[in-house]
Amino acid sequence: MEVRVVEPDPRWPELFSVEAERVKKILGSELVAIHHIGSTAVENLAAKPIIDIMPVVKDIEKVDAFSEGFAALGYEVMGEYGIPGRRYFRKGNLVRTHHVHIFAEGNRHDIDRHLALRDYLRAHPDVAAEYGELKQNLARTFPNDINAYMDGKDSFVKRVEAQALRWYYSERKPFTIRPVEERDKPELVWLIAAFRVELSQLKEETTEVDLGNAEEELNSYLAKDMPIFVAEGEGGKLLGYIVCRVDGDVVWAEYMYVLPEMRRQGVATMLYSQAEKLAADLGQDTLYNWVHPNNKKIIAFLAKLGYNVLNLIEIRKAWNKEELHRTIEVDGQEYRY
C-alpha cells in the first residue's frame, strides 16, 4: 500500500461533516456523539488524506447489527481489529479515504486518548509541526511500506499521547494526581483494604475487609519510602492510588487501585502516567509490572499503553494460608498460582 502524506487540505473538515451525516443515519438512536479525530482533524498538519471518524455509541455490541449499512456505503467491516471494545470500518481498497472507529460511551480510555491527542496537537502547533515533518520524512523513506512508516512514528506518538493525556485530564478532569500526604492515611487504608478483597476474588479466594492489615501494609510502604501517588477528586475524596518500588533506576508499578465507580474515567491512566514520569526522571523508558494472570482487565489496560506480557514467573514458598489451586502451562512448563 502506497504511503502518501500530503499538505493540509482545508476541505478535510467538510469531508468529515458529509461522511459523519451518513454514519449518523446508519447508527440512528444508538449514537451518542461523533468526532473528527486523527491528523486531518488538526489544522495545518500534514497527513495521509484519510478522514478518521470516531462515533460514540450506547452499546458496542449492538454495532454489529449495522455492518450491512456500513458495507452499503463502501466500508470494509473489520471488527475489533486489534483493539478490544472497538468496531473498526475502513473505506477504499487501493485508495483509502475514511476510517471509522466506534467505541462505547463508557470506554473513556480509548475515547479520551483520541480526543486528547487531537486537542493537544491543536493547542500546540510546534508539536504538530514536528509530527508533520516526521510523517513526511517517513513517507519519503518508506513510500511503499506502511508497516515501516507506522513503526517509524510509533515512539513519537506514544510519547506525545502520554503528554496529551496528562494535559487533557489536567485541563478537563475533576481530579488531580499528587504524592500521598499524611492526611490521606485513613482513606487510603480503606482503598488498600478494598484492593485486597478484589485481588482475593481474582485468586478465587474469600477475604473480608481488614483495615488492620491494610494499615500495616500502608505503613510498610511508607517505611520503605516507596513512592505513592493518589487521585484526589472533588471535595478531597480519594479515587485511587498507585504504589511504586524503585530498585536503582528501575521503577516497578507494584499496586494500583481505582474505585469501581471511577473506572474508565481516566483515573488509572493518569495514575500510571505519573508512575511513568517517575521512571522517565530516572532515565527509563518503561515501567515494570507484576500482574496476576487472572487480572485480564489490567492486562488489557497495560496493552493499550503499549506494554507486553514478556514473562510470568514468581518463585517463592506459598504464603501463610495461601492455596495454590490453579495451574497454567507455558512451553511445557507448569506454573501454579
Account of the protein in words:
The chain has 337 residues and is an alpha+beta fold. The protein has 2 domains: 12-172, 2-Layer Sandwich (Beta Polymerase, domain 2); 176-336, Aminopeptidase (3-Layer(aba) Sandwich), CATH 3.40.630. 41% of the residues lie in helices and 21% in strands. The chain is built from 9 helices and 12 strands. It has a 5-stranded mixed sheet with strand order 1-2-5-4-3, with helices on both faces. Strands 6-7-8-9-10 form a 5-stranded mixed sheet, sandwiched between helices. The protein is globular and about 60 Å long. It starts with 11 loop residues before the first helix and ends with a strand.
CATH homologous superfamily designation of the largest domain:
Beta Polymerase, domain 2
Number of helices: 9
Mean pLDDT: 88
Order of SSEs: HEEHEEEHHHEHHEEEHEHEE
* General shape: globular
Number of domains: 2
User: What do we call the CATH topology of the largest domain?
Assistant: Beta Polymerase, domain 2
Structural class: alpha+beta
Low-confidence stretches: none
Q: Tell me about the largest β-sheet.
A: 5 strands, mixed
- How are the strands of the largest sheet arranged? 1-2-5-4-3
Helical proportion, percent range:
40-55%
Rg, alpha carbons: 23 Å
At CATH level 2, the architecture of the largest domain is 2-Layer Sandwich
Strand residue content: 15-25%
Q: Give the termini distance in whole angstroms.
A: 46 Å
* Number of beta-strand segments: 12
CATH hierarchy class name of the largest domain: Alpha Beta
